[in-house]
Amino acid sequence: MANVSVENLKKNYGLHEVIHGIDIDIGDREFVALVGPSGCGKSTLLRMIAGLEDVSGGTVSIDEEVINDIAPRDRDIAMVFQSYALYPHMTVAQNMGFALKLAKVPADEIDARVRQAAATLNLTDYLERFPRELSGGQRQRVAMGRAIVRRPKVFLFDEPLSNLDAKLRVRMRTEIKSLHQRLGATSIYVTHDQIEAMTMADRIVVMRGGNIEQIGAPLELYDAPVNEFVATFIGSPAINLLEGVIDGADFRLPDGSTLPLPAAKPGDNGRAAKYGIRPEHFAIVETGAMTMMKIDVVEPTGNETILSGTIGGQEVQITQQQRLSLAPGQEIGVSLRLDAVHLFDAQSGQRL
Amino acid sequence: MNRMSWRYRLGMNLANVLAICFLILPLVPVVLGSLQSERTLQEDVWALLPAEYTLDNFRLILSGGTNKGQAFQGIDYLPNSVTWFRNAFLNSVLVASSVTVLTLVLATLTALTVTRLKLRWTGYLMNATVISRMVPLIVLMLPLFVVMRQIGLLNTLPGIIMAEVGLLLPYAIIILVPYFQAFPKELEESARLDGCTRLASYLRIVVPLSTPALAACGVIIFIISWHELMIPLIIASKPEFMTLPVVLAGLVSDQFVFFTVMMAICLIGLAPTMLLVLLLQKYLVKGLTAGAVKG
Ligand SMILES: Nc1ncnc2c1ncn2[C@@H]1O[C@H](COP(=O)(O)OP(=O)(O)OP(=O)(O)O)[C@@H](O)[C@H]1O
Ligand SMILES: [Mg+2]
Q1: Which among A198, B15, B163, B270 could bridge A218 via Cys, Cβ 3.0 to 4.6 Å?
Q2: Does residue B75 carry a pLDDT above 80?
Q3: Range B81-289: architecture per CATH
């Protein structure tokens, strides 16, 4: 089996460096998601691991062996592309068997393995069709099938679900995850959909501008983001960030109102900061309110209600599990779960 | 677009017919001319249709001058070109097909290098290739002759083939580069991860999917090579190495001009290119419009 590690990896296009020396260690059988905003270098990193892009500095290794100069075909890596990249002139069966044929696997074994993979992916009826005769979802499955028949050391996925409709995406998400649990191959999965990353991955790597911001288990990133960027990137609706200054045991908003600080946070009096709290860590209370929130919009989604409004003149969103009858313009008292509050430096965005 | 008005359609069809007539019309006198004897042609040059039809011209040409038929009964002198016609035709087939195959192979490899390998000099080399094509061919004739004599390829078919490949390669490269540039690179990348070398991924994925472009390019090269006069004229001075256009040119400059024979030769000479175009029509339409519309 395989562990993949990347050390001080750099990539430049001409004089322009797009990946600035990153380190990741991916364990055997681990499912790692790479997330980050568009253009942060996720695809570039993945393609360097695959060998499709030259490495400008640092190393990529599989099982402790440096593979910088090994051709893609000798890396034993399978990749699922966003565009699926099915060979248009081959049938589904030929597409799936192509790698095995190149590897000179006997024809009857190719056939058996293709059939087995097709059965897993519900593609048995389509084996003789050409890619142009398939729906988007079926093509996606063929792309997956092409990867799994090979039984490679490592699977790479570059936004494989982004061309599917929302419903199918959720179903394929579950399917890929159960496939991974069954096959247990090391997988690296690029997505810009944080829900996909949260639900599927053992660990998430958050990237920005060619650097890694944080690596950790999904809930670790959710509960303990190292900076403002990670905090806002993970979670939907996004974490609320209120600007203000630390004032003793309180956090003072520009309009003069205060929010309580968690007891554990150090004083750092007068420091400009952001007060981060996730939407679900608010409670609506009759008495003992910590602050008042003015409601602007009420959005019931069925299982929860999203309330948008302002605290001390700054926008916040909170979610509530119970069904509420609130009207826009109303003021409600809220209390906060103080142990879930994060403070971020106003300048650097680092967590205090 | 929704339904076109009948006026618009009529106009379009008229324009089409005009364009086709413009291209086809010159062929009519050639066909008519080839079907009569020199005598009937000269008797009344203004006659629209020949007084009597004969296949003697074709018989004469295809038999290499031995079967004179009625039309050429009394004529002892036959130009070299008629006696060597069959040989020239074979030479032309040989030259044009080798040139087409060689040029396609070399141009495909070059176009792939230019579009795929990020080597520093490919851009400059590509420009040099394009610019070198801007030099008028006639300027190159003397050096070509000297070089060919030096390497002993004068009066050989390989000499002609080599020179023509050199002439046509830039065209083919210029046609193929944009096509390969537009080719989705994920397909090749996927093939490379599946176990192909770069070359194998071209041969197994890119080339089979590029048949329209290759067919279009191939036909263009074949036609140009088939019609090429200057190069074989310079390189081959012996009749056994002449190609069709050289033979045709010889007909004009000879002591006697046999118009009807010339027209018959023209028609036979046209046949292979027409045949090729008809055979590859399906691909040609796709290939010549490739890139114009996103599929
Ligand atoms: N061939 C190239 N030449 C120059 N710059 C490139 C090239 N390919 C990518 N880049 C740059 O590298 C950076 C990272 O690109 P990359 O495709 O890895 O982003 P990404 O994280 O995958 O984004 P997305 O989510 O939009 O797919 C971008 O700023 C991009 O402009
Ligand atoms: Mg990308």
Answers
A1: A198
A2: no
A3: Orthogonal Bundle (1.10)
